[in-house]
């Protein structure tokens, strides 16, 4: 690895670590409770548990494993500091209450997403051979805001999606494995399945595609196995696909947000002969058909990146029930597109500014 690239990755990591302690979104409290439950009561029956005052678990197993692991690492560090505090007189005692504070527990839960950010930056460099593009992603305020300030795990499925694209020519089956890990990180990764199916079909043949899909099924059930047996695993995953909202827009600055002036309206509202939800799905399907047609007839790895970018954009702007942070996948895929650098950079900056404004108006961290 070139020293300058290593410096960029380390600098991006340090910037994020400098922000992890101070504030976090309310969702992190859910993640913290889920992580403790996973450690204390085990995974079996986890998705049937209720957490008074908090949301029921609605993230797939890989996210839950990582929440549990983050809680475990925090407890190990706290136990180590407590031991050293009793053993060594000059040990800085303030570290014990600091590492037991809720802010520090939240900081540990942010680490998987932060490391995913760094991984995405590295993959962008590997795919484009441009440190500028990696830098634009690594130091994008909106990207940093979501993972290091909010504590959301959006970058985790994005990392596996970009990894899947990177691996498709290098290790076909590993590309499938990366994709299913994205799906098991967060359900929003499934939006891009039709595009990836074309990518895999073009890179291989029917037999290789079938082997890849079988591998995905095996990984899916293996990671779910501690939580539930296969039939229950499928049912458990399907119940989470509708998401946690039924609003036309859940603070996302998309088409429906602007059309209904930001009102919090249920998406079963009749609109021009159909419900808003049906209009949103119709628009999304039409966008998908156009994108997939272009990809099938003009396939290349960069056109695949074009397709992933445009469908990420369509999913955010056309779908109902989406959240503000769901624009996040469009940013790295935009940097990987086939378009010429100047318009690409202009659009990237404009989209990043729009994304950041949307995020800040939704949560307002830091509280001013």
Q: Summarize the helix and strand pattern as letters.
A: HHHHHHHHHHHHHHEEHHHH
- Terminal-residue CA separation: 41 Å
User: What is the topology, as strand order, of the major beta sheet?
Assistant: 1-2
Mean pLDDT: 94
Given as residue ranges, the uncertain stretches (5+ residues, pLDDT < 50) are none
Inertia-based shape: globular
Counted beta strands: 2
User: How many DSSP helices?
Assistant: 18
Summing up helix and strand content along with how strands pair, one would put the structural category as mainly alpha
β-sheet strand percentage: under 5%
Largest pleated sheet: 2 strands, antiparallel
**Oligomeric form of this entry?**
single chain
Which range best describes the helical content: under 10%, 10-25%, 25-40%, 40-55%, 55-70% or over 70%?
55-70%
Please compute the radius of gyration using only Cα atoms: 21 Å
Question: What labels would you give this structure?
Answer:
globular; mainly alpha; 67% helix; two-stranded antiparallel ribbon; 18 helices; 368 residues
